[in-house]
Specification:
Number of helices: 1
Mean pLDDT: 96
Strand content: 35-45%
Largest sheet: 4 strands, antiparallel
Length: about 140
């Protein structure tokens, strides 16, 4: 698959896979953004992409940022029809202020095929062995 990418700012860094075989391509900050603990920030990329119909872009955390600094992805679904700048939403769940410098990795994008389903309302759902067991229902 070919993914069309446009630089909306000539200084933007193109997304890239860090290693052969990686599932996600890294996206980079296009400007310095400082995020205090407990705050949400928008990190501009200066990049727009053209996801083919039948696919979706899913943004996921960078494991180092999430486990070492508490930086988590917000609003990570990019629909095929969107053509605007990818502005990356993050929240700082850590205890210290975090700074993204220009060209720092922010998050990673996976492109996945989607299945559109037809909804059919029913009076009740088929029984399963799990049933309605939710949070914590399988024990520790």
């Amino acid at each position: 698959m070919i993914l069309h990418i446009a630089k909306l700012d000539s200084g933007a860094k193109l997304p890239a896979y860090a290693h052969p075989g990686d599932a996600g391509m890294d996206f980079f900050a296009n400007e310095k953004v400082v995020i205090a603990p407990g705050h949400i920030a928008r990190v501009p990329t200066g990049i727009a992409i053209e996801i083919p119909e039948g696919y979706v872009g899913l943004f996921w955390d960078k494991s180092g940022l999430s486990t070492m600094h508490g930086i988590k992805v917000l609003g990570g679904v990019i629909d095929a029809g969107y053509r605007g700048e990818l502005v990356l939403g993050v929240i700082n769940l850590g205890t210290e202020t975090y700074t993204f410098e220009k060209e720092h990795k922010v998050m990673q994008l996976l492109i996945q095929s989607i299945v559109r389903v037809e909804l059919q309302e029913v009076a009740e759902l088929e029984e399963t062995s799990r049933g309605t067991g939710g949070f914590g229902s399988t024990g520790k």
